[in-house]
Design goal:
Helix content is about 0%, strand content about 60%. By secondary structure, it is mainly beta. It starts with a strand and ends with a strand.
């Protein structure tokens, strides 16, 4: 069964692409979620549709998502060729 997340972007403030929807690819120990978003995102040196989400607050996890709460998270795009990551946004995440 596929699981999807919705990201409401808070930063950067000038974000003009609306909410992001992503399909969960994998979850790591409740503190990282790898997703594939529906639109490619441009970073400083590359673009990607794969993101790693991590909770914004240290020691927080994504467990509240399982009770349909939101979690503030950082989002970094991932270059699938060399696993380089670039931070691109902060937002609230919920399971869709």
């Amino acid at each position: 069964m596929s699981r999807f997340v919705r990201i409401v972007v808070v930063e950067p403030i000038e974000w003009d692409r609306g909410n992001l929807i992503g399909e969960v690819i994998s979850e790591f120990a409740n503190d990282k979620v790898k997703i594939r978003v529906t639109q490619s995102i441009k970073g400083r040196t590359f673009s990607s549709d794969v993101m790693i989400l991590t909770p914004l607050i240290n020691n927080e996890t994504f467990r509240p998502l399982h009770q349909y709460y939101t979690v503030m998270a950082r989002g970094s795009i991932v270059n699938e060729h060399n696993n380089e990551q670039q931070y691109v946004l902060t937002g609230t995440v919920t399971y869709d």
